[in-house]
Amino acid sequence: MQKEQEFIDRLYARVDVLRGDAAESVTDALIPVGTGQQARLERDLLVVERSGLLAALNAVDGSLCFGRIDLTEKAGGAVHHIGRIGIRADDTAHTPILIDWRAPVARPFYLATGHTPMDIRRRRHLTTEGRTVTALHDEILDLGDEERTGFEDPTGDAVLLAALNSARTGRMGDIVQTIQAEQDRIIRHSHRGVLVVEGGPGTGKTAVALHRAAFLLYEQRELLAKRAVLIVGPNPAFLGYIGEVLPALGETGVLLASLGELFPGVHATAEDTPHAAAVKGAETMVDALALAVRDRQQLPEPGAPLVIPHDDGDLILDWEIAYEARQGARDTLLPHNLARPHFAFRIIDALTAQLAERIGADPYGGPNFLGPDDLALLGKGVAASHEVHAAIEELWPQLTPEAFVADFLAEPVHLDDEDAKAVRREVTGPGDWTPADVPLLDEAAELLGVDDAAERAAAEAARQERIAYAQGVLDLSRGSETYEFEDEDESEVLAAHDIVDADRVADWYEEEDHRSAAERAAADRTWAFGHIIVDEAQELSPMAWRLLMRRSPTRSMTLVGDPAQTAEEAGVGSWEKILAPYVEDRWEHTRLGVNYRTPSEIMDVAAVVLRDGHPGFEPPSSVRSTGVRPWVRDVSDGSDGSDGDVVGAVAEEAVAATPEEGRLAVIAPRRLHGALAARLPGVVAGGEPDLTKHLVLLDPRQAKGLEFDRVIVVEPGEFGVSDLYVALTRATQTLGVVHGGELPDSLQGVLVTQA
Ligand SMILES: Nc1ncnc2c1ncn2[C@@H]1O[C@H](COP(=O)(O)OP(=O)(O)OP(=O)(O)O)[C@@H](O)[C@H]1O
């Protein structure tokens, strides 16, 4: 222990130096450096680099080193300490003193077993509190090795069990110290396309996906720093729950978002009925929306042309002219807003010809009197007419995705009557969008296109301005060189103008304005992410998949889910069905089979429910047991002293069971939330739940993906099989059931009656 403490002391001494260096150079770099172009550029680069290192050092402080592997004599006998990030010594060779857990050298720490020791003779887990070593656990992997340290852990799982039994905080922690071999294989999986991670509740799917993100950020640092990683979760509360895992691993270049946040400028928080969400998510929406866009490309009624007043006499925009123009514009195959100028051009052309015909026609049948200059002038007049543009706008309006989808929802077309009725609603403000509307907005944006000609022109003008400015700065730097260096013999020193030109500098200025890749990605609908991780992927609708696939042109994705926990009607049943349209069969399937969350006493009960409702699914097996069986309290006949009052009984049980350390969740049908909130201390009904509170009230959908020390499930007879399975598998310690209504058959006889 003493020796490890000495190592940790040395390690932190080095970290303190590194941190001091990093902080100093950030501070130094922030001092204004005048107008010297090169100095400013270097300063900016340095600030970014050093503040990244500083953030990583700060994030992992206190839990920097957690493991050690000792190689066998035959393999050289080296000793490697393993940590959350890598640290090198200050020697000329930059010798590693702490190995990043993601480095290949660290891999045996996770994979070596007595059967396959991978040249390791001893694996050690170090537990630290702050900078103090508090416990060591050793596993001997080379059975011929006689040396004993006194810290041997015969079962090899003491550290894992301690982690699994520890009180929950309402925030997920990293598992980097105890990643299991089956999990490690997925985290480091070499497949670069779509990787599916399937497994029952508590098998660590979410944890594995997050550690895979950290691994990929390490392995493909350059690419992913530029293109960013997107993590999609089912709702903001869940994202809050998992949001601290990657920063704790020193990784911050990640965007976490729920579906409702994936259309820039929209924060969709309103709710749909399950039926409406299912209709909006179905693939039939693709055609419905495409046809609705075509409906907006109109023609005047035959025989009832638009009459447009004009200085040189009325212009007649009839069915034929509009039809020809619409056909020509549609033939470009461009999205609606981009095809619009083609439509407008053709209309203006036809109306100009009409005018020329009228003004310049030779009454005796000869050629038109007007020459090309006259025609050009006439055309200009037509093109400048507000009335002409109003007519074009009437027939082929410029549309935004928001306005178009709002119109579609107010009057749904190209859907059957029942579906149209389910989705019909008024969207009057930004607060009315639902998550299921977001893929529709995205689809609409594709169909409509953005006519950004004006924006592009403005951007180009701004760029030209930057180039001119940069050129000026470079000229200044050239001019000042003689002055700055005239007394010193430093003319060999490279100055900015020697290595860059104004174009490059202008680009740097542009980048300087910009945010991190993840921030830029959040604001850009067309951003192509370097990697996308989707949690609870089984819940996403076909329309949501279309949106995500647009964000991932390289199809570098990790999809995590458990079909047995699918709740949404819109969800897609099988991975084959989801993926075939995008990657055919070029995707890899992996499975996790051990439940780390739920003790076997609880999992046995959940397994009965699952097998009863979904016979095809196999529940995972629990890695531990607590000896505490789940209980039930039946208030229906009032014999338990509750007078049949479910809410009162739940309040009583919850107050008695709320832990001082750790969390308790009451999972109840929505209809009871108001009454329960009134009786449960500190609980508010509605809105996003605050998971850091000791007592939390949720419905099964909100509970998905989360976990608590204790759980009380209320009126399980009101839940469908998947929701019930989710609710029953959230506890790490104890589970209770309170009901006044019918208990589902599958729960009869498997719970102990509460005394
Ligand atoms: N190797 C491990 N070491 C320590 N804890 C682990 C390990 N693997 C999983 N866990 C813990 O088990 C719990 C369940 O993990 P996680 O939430 O990732 O499971 P899941 O498969 O996503 O579950 P669900 O489908 O129910 O959402 C978490 O507390 C996680 O930290």
Automatic annotation (TrEMBL):
Keywords: ATP-binding, Helicase, Hydrolase, Nucleotide-binding. Residues 178-599 form the UvrD-like helicase ATP-binding domain. Gene3D superfamilies: P-loop containing nucleotide triphosphate hydrolases. One of its GO terms (biological process) is recombinational repair. InterPro entries: DNA_helicase_UvrD/REP, P-loop_NTPase, UvrD-like_ATP-bd. GO terms for cellular component: cytosol. Signal peptide: none annotated. One of its GO terms (molecular function) is hydrolase activity. PANTHER family: DNA 3'-5' HELICASE, UVRD / RECB / PCRA DNA HELICASE FAMILY MEMBER. This is Helicase. It comes from Streptomyces antnestii.
